[in-house]
Amino acid sequence: MSGLSTHVLDAVSGAPATGVPVTLQDASGTELSSAVTDSDGRIGQVNPYPLIPGIYHLVFDTGDWFADNDIDGFYPEIDICFEVTDPDRHYHVPVLLSPYSYSTYRGS
């Protein structure tokens, strides 16, 4: 299965980060798609179309999520830049989120 998915976990509570708006952009900043994390903190298919090789950005609107959850957060936005090299491969880009740090990795 090709495509792009993401998962946001609130690292402080260990719970899914529900309702985080996420936008997929190409290298020029053009929005390709957007979605919001579900009750499990996931977006199963960020983009409905196969991604061609190139540079992309997943932009997480964490500022609104922090505000909606009464959390004083430092990062109003997380912009993860990544490269698609194989359009037939599935790319999973998770985020572990806390008020003063975040981490990401290439998942499976």
Automatic annotation (TrEMBL):
The keyword Protein biosynthesis is annotated on this UniProt entry: no
Keywords linked to the UniProt accession: Hydrolase, Purine metabolism
GO molecular function, one term: hydroxyisourate hydrolase activity
InterPro entries for the chain: Hydroxyisourate_hydrolase (IPR014306), Thyroxine_BS (IPR023418), Transthyretin/HIU_hydrolase (IPR000895), Transthyretin/HIU_hydrolase_d (IPR023416), Transthyretin/HIU_hydrolase_sf (IPR036817), Transthyretin_CS (IPR023419)
Domain Transthyretin/hydroxyisourate hydrolase: start-end pairs: 4-107
Catalytic activity: 5-hydroxyisourate + H2O = 5-hydroxy-2-oxo-4-ureido-2,5-dihydro-1H-imidazole-5-carboxylate + H(+)
Binding site for substrate: H7, R42, Y105
Coiled coil: none
GO annotation (BP), single: purine nucleobase metabolic process
Pfam families (UniProt xref): Transthyretin
Top-level taxon of origin: Bacteria
Top-rank EC class of the record's enzyme: hydrolase
Keyword ATP-binding: no
Record EC number: 3.5.2.17
Purpose of the protein: Catalyzes the hydrolysis of 5-hydroxyisourate (HIU) to 2-oxo-4-hydroxy-4-carboxy-5-ureidoimidazoline (OHCU).
NCBIfam families for this protein: hdxy_isourate (TIGR02962)
Assembly and oligomerization: Homotetramer.
Record-stated family: Belongs to the transthyretin family. 5-hydroxyisourate hydrolase subfamily.
Name this polypeptide is given: 5-hydroxyisourate hydrolase
